[in-house]
Design a protein that fits this description.
By secondary structure, this protein is α/β, with parallel strands linked by helices. The chain contains eight helices and nine strands. The protein is globular, with a radius of gyration of 18 Å.
Length: 242
C-alpha cells in the first residue's frame, strides 16, 4: 500500500461568515492521480489552496492537515505568464524564486516532449492558447514536484487542443509518476485522466462519493471517453442528483 501523501480530516474553511468547506476529509496516496469534481463555486479551488498552504484571509479548522511534499507544483486556470519573459524565462520562474538550480537537461526534455523546444525564445503574446497552456504545465513541473496541483488547466480551449494537452499530461506523468490532484468541471476529463474521482457537494463542500477508476493507467484520454462510459455516467449521477 503506497504511503499517504495528503491527509485532510474534518476540515472546515470560512471566509468571514461564509463556510466553504464542511468537515471535509480527503486522503491521497503517493503516486495517485485524483480528480476533484463538483458544482461550480462549491469550494474546489479552496480545497487545492488548502492543500498548497496558500489560503489567505480564511479561518481554517482541521482535525488533521498533513501534506508530505517537499516540492509542490501548481498550475492555475489563468496562465499568469509574465509577458516580458520568454517561454524559457517563464518556465524558470519558480526555480528562480526558490533559488533552485535548474536541471537543464530535464527541462529541455520536457520542452521536447511538449513540442515547445523551438519556441523557447518566444514571448506569451506570440503563442497560441494551447501553447500557453503547455508553458504553464511545464512551469508547474519545473521543480520536479512530488505533488502536482492542477486547477482547471485545460479550461477555455477548443476540444481538439484539450485532448492534445491531456495526452501531453499523461505522457509527462507516465515518466514522472508525480502525485497529482486535478480540479475540473469536465466529468469526462476527470474520468479519462484519473485513478480516482472525488465528488464534492454544493457549498459548503463535503465529500459525497469517491469512485475508483479500475482501468489501466496511463491511458489515452480520447479512447478512455469511449471505454469508460459507465464511470462517466456514474459520476454524472452523483454530481447532479446528490
Amino acid at each position: 500500500m503506497p504511503p499517504i501523501k495528503v491527509a485532510l480530516e474534518q476540515c472546515n474553511v470560512f471566509y468571514g461568515s461564509l463556510q466553504v468547506l464542511d468537515e471535509l476529509t480527503l486522503n491521497v496516496k503517493e503516486g495517485e492521480f485524483v480528480a476533484i469534481v463538483g458544482p461550480s463555486g462549491c469550494g474546489k479551488t479552496t480545497l487545492l489552496n488548502l492543500i498548497a498552504g496558500i489560503l489567505e484571509k480564511a479561518t481554517i479548522n482541521c482535525r488533521k492537515r498533513e501534506v508530505k511534499a517537499s516540492k509542490v507544483g501548481y498550475a492555475t486556470q489563468e496562465d499568469l505568464l509574465l509577458p516580458w519573459r520568454t517561454v524559457w524565462g517563464n518556465i524558470l520562474l519558480p526555480l528562480e524564486l526558490l533559488r533552485v538550480k535548474p536541471d537543464t537537461s530535464y527541462l529541455k526534455r520536457l520542452l521536447s516532449i511538449s513540442g515547445l523546444a523551438d519556441f523557447i525564445d518566444y514571448r506569451p503574446h506570440q503563442l497560441s492558447g494551447g501553447m500557453r497552456k503547455r508553458v504553464v504545465l511545464l512551469r508547474a513541473l519545473s521543480l520536479k514536484p512530488d505533488l502536482l496541483l492542477l486547477d482547471e488547466p485545460f479550461a477555455n480551449i477548443d476540444a481538439y487542443t484539450k485532448i492534445q494537452l491531456q495526452r501531453l499530461l499523461m505522457k509527462l506523468l507516465s515518466n514522472l509518476r508525480t502525485t497529482t490532484i486535478l480540479v475540473t468541471h469536465d466529468i469526462e476529463e476527470a474520468v479519462s485522466l484519473s485513478n480516482r474521482i472525488v465528488i464534492l457537494s454544493r457549498r459548503p463542500a463535503r465529500v459525497v462519493k469517491a469512485i475508483e477508476v479500475e482501468a489501466p493507467w496511463p491511458r489515452d484520454p480520447l479512447e478512455a471517453r469511449r471505454e469508460l462510459k459507465d464511470y462517466i455516467n456514474e459520476v454524472y449521477g452523483y454530481v447532479f442528483n446528490k
